[in-house]
Amino acid sequence: MKTREKLEQNQIWLYVVTLAVAAGLGLASPELMTSLDNHILISIVIALLMFGMFTQIPFMSIKESIGNRRFILAILTANYIAVPIVVWLLSQFLPQQSPVLLGVYLVLLTPCIDYVIVFTHLGRGSEKLMLLSTPILFVTQMFLLPIYLWIFMGEQASEIVNPGPFIEAFLIIIVLPLLLAIVLQLLSKKNRNSSQLLLDVSAWIPVPLMALTLFVVVSSQIGKLSQYWDVLLKVVPIYIAFMLIMPFVTRFIIKWFRLDIKSGRTVIFSAGTRNSLVVLPLALALPDNWSTLVAAIIVTQTIVELAGELIYVRFIPRVILRDKVYNEGSE
User: Fold this and answer.
1) How far apart are CA 286 and CA 323, in angstroms?
2) Per-residue pLDDT for the chain (331 aa), expressed as one digit of tens each?
3) How far apart, in Å, are the Cα atoms of 125 and each of 164, 169, 251, 267, 270?
4) Which among 157, 206, 243, 288 would be 20 to 30 A from 298, CA to CA?
5) Alpha helix (H) ranges present in 123-260?
6) Strand, helix or coil at 56?
7) What backbone torsions phi and psi does residue 111 show, to the nearest 5 degrees?
8) Of 95, 31, 118, nearest to 238 (Cα)?
């Protein structure tokens, strides 16, 4: 148990090392690493990661999360009202090319449901609330993403984005792992020996599988980035601006809903952290003339975001939501 806890405590540095190795191999041996460039393989790896994550979510006490209405309303408001407005405004500074806009919209309009839990904990938020909100966030984003794409891009999005890959990703990446995790938790209550053992084993899955997912994604995609340096150099400032703006915008939302300090930090991390790993299979399933550029835009966001999260874990509890300042402002 202590070994697992130690692994979880040091997982950020494991991800940093994994990214460095993946980037090095992807750039040094692009021909070899392109063998990993397969949306089915990436979907399976992410599905396994989601299974490991979902087994750790206490679904039997999900009513506790839904019962916290102010938190749920705040996190939904931040992700589905504030974020789309900020993203649309920032997108006006991008090249008005459909693949570029689609890539940015795909990744910035979808809240993260995986490693955000880790960063929430490190940033002194409530990882339990973040865990409990992940099923709600995933279902809502899969429902709302096509709507936002249609609002922002009109018929262009409906012509290019086939609903098939979205449905496939939803079934493979979320529904199947979710059902398996819930069944496993139900069985663990009836048969505490074998099922509980499986739950304990599955608790080891998230960290190594997150590292594996990052390795597969970055090593297989980073070689493509050089083809689009001119576009990516225009996209990176948008990603940085997004991560800078969202904590300040979200601070007003959590004060509006009168959340406690840990819940407030949780909402900030959710609003600022995006779902790049889950939407990547959607990008890879696009037509060939779009998929490479859209995937490169999404992978770039992953790299920028992981660097930004290392700043977030210090910046949010020390600057954005400090205990003393927040409490004084709430009185």
Assistant:
1) 46
2) 556 666 666 777 788 888 889 888 888 887 777 777 666 777 788 788 778 777 776 666 656 556 678 999 999 999 999 999 999 999 999 998 888 999 999 999 999 987 788 789 889 998 888 888 887 887 888 789 888 998 998 877 666 666 666 677 667 777 888 888 888 878 777 766 655 566 666 667 777 888 888 888 888 878 777 778 889 999 999 999 999 999 999 999 999 999 999 999 999 999 999 988 778 777 877 777 788 888 889 989 988 998 899 899 999 999 998 876 545 444 4
3) 36, 29, 14, 9, 10
4) 206
5) 127-153, 155-160, 163-169, 176-190, 194-202, 206-225, 229-256
6) coil
7) -70, 145
8) 95
239 three-class SS: helix
- Mapped onto helix, strand or coil, the DSSP state of residue 97 is coil
Contact 113, 276 (CB under 8 A): no
Q: Does domain 2-322 have CATH number 1.10.8.60?
A: no
CB 159, CB 120: distance < 8 Å: no
For the chain, the residue count is: 331
**Residue from 80, 79, 78, 104 nearest 93 by CA:** 104
User: Hunting for tokens 């936002």 — which residue is that?
Assistant: 148
pTM of this prediction exceeds 0.70: yes
Query: In 3-state terms, what secondary structure has residue 94?
Result: coil
SS3 111: strand
Residue 45 has which token pair?
């790896």
The string over 308-324, giving b where at least 16 C-beta atoms fall within 10 Å of a residue's C-beta and e elsewhere, is bbbebbebbbeebbeee
